[in-house]
Write a structure and sequence with these properties.
This protein is mainly alpha-helical. It is built from 6 helices and 6 strands; from the N terminus they run ββαβαβββαααα. The strands form 3 sheets. It has a two-stranded antiparallel ribbon with strand order 1-2. A two-stranded parallel ribbon has the order 3-4. Strands 5-6 form a two-stranded antiparallel sheet. Helix 2 (50-63) links the parallel strand 3 and strand 4 (68-70). The longest helix has 18 residues, at 125-142. The chain is globular, with a radius of gyration of 20 Å.
Length: 155
């Protein structure tokens, strides 16, 4: 799992929704959570800013009051034990949110969330395929040539 640009090993079931958009998909989010019942530990909502995550958390709690929903703050640490709610074991520095900036992964997530909707606005299927091909070409144009990467490894 990647958190704030750092890869971490996780010994838990981590599920991810790649195309969730705040208010429009609240029903889908609730359905997705319901299909995973019973949830015996805690449900962490990490989508968006804390204020944006509050609405889905409230919706989930209204639907299932027995479920422990946590909106973690940057830098918090939790102890996870099977079958029990997560326990907060460490808080962040007071300036943690200001220290964590946006990186390319934040930009990628914003892009990925809106991509399906943007492609759906293209009415013709063939034009959608051309748009995808054009995006791939742009990415290929930014990639280093294979020869350059190999030379750097040898140096």
């Amino acid at each position: 799992m990647r958190i704030s640009g750092t890869d971490l090993n996780v010994r838990a079931h981590v599920r991810r929704i790649d195309s969730y958009s705040a208010h429009a998909d609240q029903t889908e989010l609730l359905t997705w959570i319901t299909e995973r019942k019973p949830i015996s530990g805690s449900l962490f909502l990490t989508h968006g800013e804390p204020g944006a995550a509050a609405a889905p958390a409230e919706l989930v709690t209204e639907h299932d009051p027995s479920l422990t929903v946590i909106i973690p703050a940057i830098g918090e640490s939790y102890q996870l034990q099977s079958g029990t709610p997560a326990k907060l074991v460490g808080t962040a520095r007071s300036d943690a949110a200001q220290l964590v900036g946006r990186d390319w992964q934040n930009d990628y997530a914003d892009f990925a969330v809106g991509l399906k909707h943007q492609l759906a606005r293209i009415s013709d299927s063939e034009n959608r395929r051309r748009a995808i091909a054009a995006m791939r070409k742009v990415l290929d144009d930014y990639a280093e040539p294979r020869d350059t990467r190999q030379k750097r490894v040898r140096v």
